[in-house]
Amino acid sequence: MKILQISNYYPPHIGGIESTAHDIATAIKDTDNEQRVFCFNHEQGDKIDEVDGVKVVRAGCFAKVASQSLSLSYGKLLKKTFKDFTPNIVIFHYPNPFGARYLIKVLRKYPNCKLVMYWHLDITKQKLLGKLFEGQNKWLLNRAIAVVATSPNYIAGSKWLQMVKEKCVVIPSCAKSALLPLSEKELKISSNIRKEFSNKIICFALGRHVKYKGMEYLVHASRFLDDKFVVLIGGQGPLTEELKNMAAEDKKIYFLGVVSDSEVRAYMHACDIFCFPSVTKNEAFGLALAEAMAFGKPAVTFTIEGSGVNYVSLNGVTGIEVENRNVQAYADAIIKLADEKALREQYGDAARRRVLDNFTTNKFKSNLINLLKKL
């Protein structure tokens, strides 16, 4: 079969959807299927290149509005890609309403091409835009032969996926890098972190500094923690300066800025508790959460209706889940894990087992290949 993935972007551009698209391409490489990737270019101008032996067609982007990339050449280039490659299966990563507009036009001319919708998340933030795209969503979901979600929670909580739940398949994301052994360099970094914060309970959080990631609630929760704690926050984003101002008087909080993959692994290895304070279903799965769990770290999360976060980490099994945005309860959960070392270790061990049982590269590949065989 010929399989065409249509993603927003693709590596070296970094992001959750991009990582999943790359995981799919990696899994397909070991099969007899041919494949190609179509996406926006994270730089100006159209471009065709290869990433890990997979041909990638990139349409130049001239602007981004409400998180949606815009391109003058997208439609023409997509049409040409279909003509040259003639895919049997299209895996379309949603949301991407601009791309969906052109995909619908092309698919009308290829009635035998099978469509797989890879549904990463509902459009929830831009409510008006979400209503504008209802027609294309219905068309694509009706045309799709299968709809992939990363957790059963998201299927249950999405009005769109409930419309086609008989087509839905769960393929959880994979915490691939966290399951690799640490290098000597990473072990040294981890050791230095432990030395720098000796006799402290290290809480680590990682994510873009945007509203749905909920870092502000972690900053507020820190005010209820005493000086035996340290809170390390990795990542950057539009809210970084606001968060720093919010935490200006809290000496327990350290902002790490952008951290490399190796540094992330070192911090996850060094920390005692992983804090994942996301608050909306824009956090569809929580890949960083799964990666921290792979290091045997208990997690503290909020309850998010319809999100996969509470599917990845199980309350009372791999960590503690508290009422959404309740910063006192969040702090209390951190204190409980700090005070009860045996519980911390119990949850950490269960967290690693959950990842090994459900969120590995091999499990992801097996789930994907099984789906393709059925198609």
What is the alpha-carbon Rg in Å? 21 Å
Tell me the structural class. Answer: alpha/beta
State the shape: elongated
Number of helices: 16
CATH class of the largest domain: Alpha Beta
CATH superfamily of the largest domain: Glycogen Phosphorylase B
Binned strand content: 15-25%
Count of strand segments:
16
Question: Which consecutive residue ranges, at least 5 long each, have pLDDT under 50?
Answer: none
> Which strand order spans the largest sheet, edge to edge or round the barrel?
3-4-2-1-7-8-9-10
The end-to-end span amounts to 10 Å
Please characterize this protein's 3D structure.
42% of the residues lie in helices and 21% in strands. The protein is α/β, with parallel strands linked by helices and 375 residues long. It folds into two domains: 2-173 and 360-374, 3-Layer(aba) Sandwich (Rossmann fold); 177-358, Rossmann fold (3-Layer(aba) Sandwich), CATH 3.40.50.2000. Strands 3-4-2-1-7-8-9-10 form an eight-stranded mixed β-sheet, sandwiched between helices. Helix 2 (74-85) packs across helix 3. It is elongated. The chain starts with a strand and ends with a helix.
